[in-house]
Specification:
By secondary structure, this protein is mostly beta strands. The chain has a domain of about 80 residues: Jelly Rolls (Sandwich). The protein is about 5% helix and about 45% strand. The chain has one helix and eight strands. Strands 1, 2, 3, 4, 5, 6, 7 and 8 form an eight-stranded antiparallel beta sheet that branches. A hairpin with a 2-residue loop joins strand 5 and strand 6. The chain is globular.
Length: about 130
């Protein structure tokens, strides 16, 4: 098993504190890694692009605010303290009125825009 955190692996990670260090929305930053999974925090504001991840599920744990996850035939509202998993291959778009602070859990190497690419694609493996 491989577990790493940056910079001090001996201290717990304060997710809210880490989220406040992110200066721009839609810029996920790693806070921990376990085996092949990355734990990322992100600030979400407004609407993201439609995309999917054909190879993996994607988990969203809302820390603060309300996250809206649009699916092709419905939408899900995820409140602070709630978790929602988008199954692999399902087209979705995340959004928030105001700002939401969210932790995402996904395998290493997954791009935030899936295979859609474009200007909203964030650089991977950036620690905060």
């Amino acid at each position: 098993m491989s577990i790493s955190q940056s910079p001090d692996a001996s201290a717990p990670v304060n997710l809210m504190q880490k989220a406040t260090l992110i200066d721009q929305p839609w810029s996920p930053r790693m806070v921990a890694e376990m085996n092949d999974y990355q734990f990322k925090v992100v600030r979400i504001e407004g609407e993201f692009i439609w995309h999917s991840h054909p190879e993996t599920d994607e988990a969203f744990l809302v820390l603060e605010g309300t996250l809206r996850i649009d699916l092709l035939d419905s939408c899900v509202h995820v409140q602070a303290g709630e978790l929602y998993v988008v199954p692999r291959g399902i087209a979705h778009r995340t959004a928030a009125k105001g700002e939401a602070k969210v932790m995402m859990i996904e395998p290493r190497g997954v791009l935030n825009t899936g295979h859609e690419g474009g200007e909203r694609t964030a650089e991977n493996d950036l620690w905060i």
